[in-house]
Amino acid sequence: MANVILVGAQWGDEGKGKIIDVLTEQSEIVVRTAGGNNAGHTVYIGRDKYVLHLIPSGILRPGKVCVIGNGVVLDPVALVGEIDGLEKLGVKVTPDNLRVSETAHVVFPWHRELDGQREVRKGTNKIGTTKRGIGPTYGDKAARVGLRVIDLINPTRFPAKLKERLEENNEVLRALGAQPLDHDEILAAYTRAADRLRPYVANTVVHLHEATRRGANILFEGAQGTFLDIDHGTYPYVTSSSTTAGGACTGSGVPPNRMDKVVGVLKAYTTRVGEGPLPTENAGVSDLLHGMGREFGATTGRARRCGWFDSVATRHAAMVNGIDELALTNVDGLDTVKTIRVCVAYRVDGRTVQHIPNDWEVLARCEPVYQEFPGWEVSTETVTRWEDLPVNCRHYLLSLAQLTGARLTIVSVGPAREQTMFL
Ligand code: IMP
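Above: inputs. Below: predicted complex with inosinic acid.
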């Protein structure tokens, strides 16, 4: 399978967790390269449901090595909680199957506080963040004042660095009218987490290069989605990391010429959590999916906004990520729909546009131009072979791939590993 980058080609929550889990079977190493515990990857194995936030879902398969790369922002207390949670479920997490980059930046309580405070100040213009401190941590990284894992696990260096950063951030919090944070509490909690994590910490760049030299297959798992990318998303309604394919290189230290393939994961419709424009949003589609008990966020439990498939957006995603192959998920979500709509262009200010506008205010005014497809109106949940899918379903899925501009190779009709078809 060689080295594969997997990206979300919409607004996140495309069902990447499951596709990553399926592709992991063919990989030796799985690397997370961006984001933090804002992500939530849900994987079902038999009757067990696992929600992973920081640890790559490869951890659920014995013998796989998981890497948290340098591009990730890491809340060490949350990571220890995730390790303990997995162990309680019988999943072994050891320094042999989890490596954490020395240079990943650390999320602190003031980042979470500032995340919340900035949202309050934005009022109706809020981003709708997960309040995990992601934006302020990447902000500190870019401003070159962040602390990295290498600082966290160094007991002689960490206390002084923590003190210095906390003093500055407490001044900011006071100026914003928020409560300052307690130094001793943070020092104790972060020292405890550092002691637990120290054995996992490694120079992951060197480790990954050694692995590529001996021909190991590596899966680079994306978090969030293309339109949440700090550069290519619907700014400012985005997350703060590079969620597109390029982020897999910068977030791992593995260069572009070592990558072999980009797989884009898409839902058969569109969803988004948080604020920001979503041209194909549709109350009927939201009601249908929520009524089926689906489309609630894995991290915050928020109901996702839902709408029809937007091929203007996915074409853009195919371009920016260089998507070779598509995995279409949640196909069964449309099983009961009589007529399915797909956005093929936008109308805005009296013009028809084929590209997603960069100005979010223009995007928010875009009216979708729809093409209609007849639904299949039977359950696809138990189908295990592409040939056995209803003809209308196959036609719909192949049309989505054609409109997006990449080859359809994986179809998923439910959360279980078995509900996956390969073309
Ligand atoms: P942040 O990443 O917490 O700063 O949130 C910024 C935006 O990205 C908000 O709209 C979030 O809802 C969205 N977001 C962050 N992580 C995810 C995810 O894993 N899935 C879907 N949306 C996400």
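Residues 12-13, 38-40, 127-130, 132, 134-135, 223-224, 228, 239-240, 273-274 surround inosinic acid (CB under 6 Å).
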